[in-house]
Amino acid sequence: MELLIGDKVWSTWSMRPWLALKHVGAPFTETLIRLRRETSDEVRVAATAAGSPTGQVPVLKDGAVTVWDSLAICEYLAERFPAAGLWPADPVARALGRAAAAEMHAGYASLRGECPMDLTRREAARLTPATEDNVRRIVALWRDLLTKFGGPFLLGTGWSIADAFFTPVATRFRSYGVHLSDFGDDGSAGAYASRLLETPGYLEWERGALTDERVRDR
Ligand SMILES: N[C@@H](CCC(=O)N[C@@H](CS)C(=O)NCC(=O)O)C(=O)O
C-alpha cells in the first residue's frame, strides 16, 4: 500500500489514516506531497501527479484501489483488516465512535482556523468565543465517551479510529496552551489528550515531523 501525505508537522488530515495504518501493522510506503508552497495550485498539481483524484492528501493506494479522504481511508482499513480492531466489536461503541469521528471530520471550524496544527509550536493563544465553544464541546464529548466506555481510550480499552481523529486536536491543545480545566474538564479529558500524545504511533509521526529537513533547517 502507498499513502500520499502532507508535511507531518502540519497535516492533520494525513496523520489520521497514517496512525490507523501503523495500528494495523501492514507495510506501506509514504509519498510526501509538500504543503504550503507558493500557491495552493502547486500543491494540487503535485498531489494530482502522484495520483490524488482531488488534488488533496491523504490518499491511499492499495493495488488497483485508490481511496481519498481521511475518514474513508480509515473505514476502508477497518474493513480490510478486521482483526486490527480499528472499531470496537460493540455496535453501540462503534456507532458513537463513528459519530465522534464524523463530528471532528466536519466540525470545529473555528478551532481549526484559529489553531492550525504545528507540531513545533508551544505558545499560548487567546481564543475567540467560537473556538472556546469548540473546546467546551470537545471536552464534554471526551468526558462522556470516557465515562461511558471506561477509557483509557474514547471507546474503551482499544485505540480506535475515533482516537486517530482526535490526536491532532490533542496536539493543538498542547501547542496553543489550552487548559481543558477552563472548559469543564475534571481531569479526565486532559489525561486522555496526554495519553494520545504518548502512543507509539503518534510519537513515531512526531519524530518524522521534527526530523524533516524543512522543519530542522528553518
Ligand atoms: N476532507 C479531506 C481534506 C483533505 C485536505 O484538506 N487536505 C489538505 C492537506 S492537510 C490538502 O491537501 N490541501 C492542499 C489543497 O487543498 O490544495 C480529508 O479528510 O482527507
Quick overview:
With 218 residues, the protein is of the alpha+beta class.
Describe this structure in words.
By secondary structure, the chain is α+β, with helices and mostly antiparallel strands. The protein has 2 domains: about 80 residues, Glutaredoxin (3-Layer(aba) Sandwich), CATH 3.40.30; about 110 residues, Glutathione S-transferase Yfyf (Class Pi), Chain A, domain 2 (Up-down Bundle). About 55% of the residues lie in helices and about 5% in strands. It has a 4-stranded mixed sheet, covered by helices on one side. Strand 1, helix 1 and strand 2 form a beta-alpha-beta unit. The two termini are about 30 Å apart. The mean pLDDT is about 95. Bound molecules: glutathione. Glutathione (GSH) binds next to helix 1, helix 2 and helix 3.
Strand composition percent: 5-15%
Number of discrete domains: 2
Helix content: 40-55%
Q: What is the global morphology?
A: globular
CATH architecture of the largest domain: Up-down Bundle
Instruction: Kindly report how far apart the N and C termini lie.
Output: 32 Å
Can you write the helix and strand succession as a string?
EHEHEEHHHHHHHH
Please count the beta strands (DSSP E, at least 2 residues each).
4
Query: In angstroms, what is the radius of gyration?
Result: 17 Å
Low-confidence stretches: none
Which sheet architecture does the biggest sheet show? 4 strands, mixed
What's the mean pLDDT score?
97
CATH topology of the largest domain: Glutathione S-transferase Yfyf (Class Pi), Chain A, domain 2
Total of DSSP H or I helical runs spanning 4+ residues: 10
Q: Given the helix and strand composition, which structural class is it?
A: alpha+beta
Major sheet: order of its strands? 2-1-3-4
